[in-house]
Amino acid sequence: MRPAGDGADYTHMAGHGNLGWNSASGNFNKPKPRLVGPRLLTIVIVPIPPPAAQFRPQPQDSRETLVMAKTCVFTGRKAVFGNKKTYRGKAKYLGGVGKKITGTSRRKFKPNLQKVLCMVDGVAKRVWVSAAAIHSGLVVKPVKVKPFGDVKV
């Protein structure tokens, strides 16, 4: 019953009177070993491997490293958090005594992102792009049909 080299004292278990069948619960009573005395701890030092990002080849374009889900590739716009406020009362310019804030709750401000097929590093990719980037002309769409490609003179 005593493990070798444990350093604990199991003498309290000798002559345990509750061993056997327990008719009240219908279970077999087993002794629960309690550790009395010193216990030796072994400390194992495990080397921490370096992050895998150091070994990953870096892409040529810096925009590729910052691409995350629901983030604009060109402008970097993404969802930000803010507060939604609830007011009561009438504004002073309308003749009231002023508006009071009765509560604030967290909310998410989402950008207007569209999934667009565009040219990134000379390759046509379908990426998330903000509507502001599309309006400002940052997005270059791939040519679907070469102009005058079928004309033979």
Give a structural overview.
With 153 residues, the chain is mostly beta strands. The protein is built from 2 helices and 6 strands. It has helices spanning 62-65, 131-136; strands at residues 20-22, 27-29, 80-88, 100-109, 113-120, 123-130. The strands form 3 sheets. It has a two-stranded antiparallel ribbon with strand order 1-2. The longest helix is centred in the last third of the chain and has 6 residues, at 131-136. It is flat. 5% of the residues are buried.
What gross morphology would you assign? flat
Order of strands in the sheet with most strands? 1-2
Uncertain residue ranges: none
Q: Gyration radius, to the nearest Å?
A: 35 Å
Mean pLDDT: 75
Biggest beta sheet summary: 2 strands, antiparallel
Provide the helix percentage: under 10%
Count the beta strands. Answer: 6
**Which secondary-structure class do the elements indicate?**
mainly beta
Give me the number of helical elements.
Answer: 2
